[in-house]
Structure formats: C-alpha cells, structure tokens
Design goal:
Layout (H helix, E strand, L loop, with lengths): L5 E9 L4 H8 L4 H9 L2 E9 L2 E8 L4 H10 L1 H10 L3 E2 L12 E2 L8
Antiparallel strand pairs: 1-3, 1-4, 1-5, 2-3
Length: 112
C-alpha cells in the first residue's frame, strides 16, 4: 500500500523592488535545482504570487523529510540558487521555523 504524500505549504514576502527579478529567476529555474528537488522526493511543487506575497506548495513522497531537506540544503547548486532568490524575499509570517524566510502554514481544508 502506498501512503498519501505529505502536503506542505509555506509563505514569504517578496521585496517590491526585487519582485520582477524573482519572477524572472523562476521563469527559468536552474535544471540542477529542479533535479535535486525531485531526487529529494518533492513533487507537484508550485509557487504562487499575489501582490508581494509568495505562497509555495509541494507534496513530499519520501520517508524522511528532515533528511531530504538537509540534502537539499547541502547541495552546492541549491546554495548558489539561494544567493539569487533569498535577497528577493522577506519573512512576513510568525517565525515558526527559526531563521527561515519561508514559514510553514497550516492546512485548513483539503478535498481528497
């Protein structure tokens, strides 16, 4: 029996003066970044924009989310990518994950 994927969602602000830069970066995400996400069991990853708010959603299909997140964090290509994307972002939600720009948000409802 295959277990259902874990649904994860996050929110962050985009700096108004960096909005177009951020959107341009995501119009052509580096293949190595995408490959690492897939290798680390991330599926159906989407980022939405509404004004200066970014909302991300993905499904995790692995067995150890924390270990896979560490693998992504240790990846040199992902680290380089973040040197471009992080300056575009600003935390806008309560800090639930210490030090993270993107903060997790709770699922309220799901039509399964």
């Amino acid at each position: 029996m295959t277990r259902a994927p874990e649904r994860r969602a996050f929110v962050v602000g985009v700096r108004p003066e960096k909005r177009e830069e951020y959107l341009a970066l995501h119009s052509a995400v580096w293949p190595g970044v995408e490959q690492k996400l897939v290798e680390c069991n991330i599926r159906n990853y989407s980022i939405f924009v509404f004004g200066d708010v970014l909302f991300a959603y993905y499904e995790y299909v692995g067995d150890d989310h924390d270990a896979d997140m560490r693998r992504i964090a240790d990846d040199p290509v992902s680290q380089e990518w973040w040197t471009h994307t992080d300056p575009c972002q600003v935390r806008i939600a309560e800090e639930r994950t210490p030090g993270a720009l993107w903060q997790p948000i709770d699922e309220v409802w799901h039509l399964g």
